[in-house]
Structure formats: structure tokens, C-alpha cells
Amino acid sequence: MTALDTNVLVRFLVEDDARQTARAAALVERAVREKRSLFLAQIVVCETVWVLETAYEFGRDEIARALGHLLRAGHLVVEETEQVRRALDRYSAGKGDVADYLIAERAHALGFAKVATFDRDLHGEPDFVEP
Questions:
Q1: CB atoms inside a 10 Å sphere around CB 123
Q2: Which is nearest to 46 in space by CA: 84, 15, 74, 82?
Q3: pTM of the full structure
Q4: What are the DSSP calls for the chain, one per residue?
Q5: How far is 25 from 9, CA to CA, in rounded Å?
Q6: What is the pLDDT tens value at each position of the chain, 131 positions in all?
Q7: Domains along the chain?
Q8: Can you tell me the distance from the alpha carbon of 103 to that of 98, in angstroms, rounded to the nearest whole number?
Q9: For the sheet containing 2-3, what is the strand order?
């Protein structure tokens, strides 16, 4: 199994560099053809969202939709898929970043009820409290 770095995933999604996009697509096609999985870590999801928002000015819905498709791809193994799925759902409807919602998801999985944050946008949302 091969893990994907953020830059490979972004090239695959955005297709803005013909040479690198072709290499990323070939990696994915090879994995599908050979019935091998590719691994996507939660941190790569967070970095990808940040890159798509800041460098490419993608909107929340567009990002959530694109990453939602990836979560359903049979050749991808996503770290804690359900946590990522819930974080993406909350991201598309909320004010926080995917990373914020993944922090809350991980905290819950480990038995913690709330996340203390200075991020005012998150105050008032379930799972987040002021310190």
C-alpha cells in the first residue's frame, strides 16, 4: 500500500500541472488496475482543504463534494473514514476548518466531551467551549 502526500492529491484533484497530474493519475490508475489500495491520512485531508481554500480559492461545498467522492473511492483507505466524513459534513455547514472538526472527532473517540478553543467562530457550536 502506498500513502498519498498532499501535493500528489492536489495535483490529482486540480490538474494544474500537466506532468505532475499525469503522474498522479497514473499512480491511481495503477492502484485500481492492480487492486492495490492507496492510503490517505487525516493530516493530508486537512492540508488538502487548506491548499484548495487558500491557493485555489475553492468554496466549502466544492471541497466537501470533492473529498466526499474520495471517501467513496474503493481504492482509497482513509484514516478513520467515518471521523473524516463527519468532519467534512460539519465543515460544509459550519464556520470551522476541517482540522477543527477532526480535532473534535478525535477527542470524542478518545472519550473527551469538549474541545477548548480561542476560535470565536467555534464558540456556541457543539463540542467546542471557551477556555
A1: 12
A2: 84
A3: 0.91
A4: -EEPPHHHHHHHHH--SHHHHHHHHHHHHHHHHTT--EEE-HHHHHHHHHHHHHTS---HHHHHHHHHHHHH-TTEEETTHHHHHHHHHHHHHSSS-HHHHHHHHHHHHTT---EE---GGGTTSTTEE--
A5: 9
A6: 899 999 999 999 999 999 999 999 999 999 999 999 999 999 999 999 999 999 999 999 999 999 999 999 999 999 999 999 999 999 999 999 999 999 999 999 999 999 999 999 999 898 999 99
A7: 2-129 (3.40.50)
A8: 9
A9: 2-3, 38-40, 76-78
C-alpha cell at 27: 499512480
Cell numbers at 99, concatenated: 482540522
Q: Amino acid identity, residue 101?
A: Y
Task: Report residue 108 as a C-alpha cell.
Answer: 470524542
Contacts by 114-122 with C-beta closer than 8 Å and gap 24+? 121/95, 121/96, 122/95, 122/96
User: Considering Cα of 9, then 12, then 24, then 88, what sign does the dihedral take?
Assistant: positive
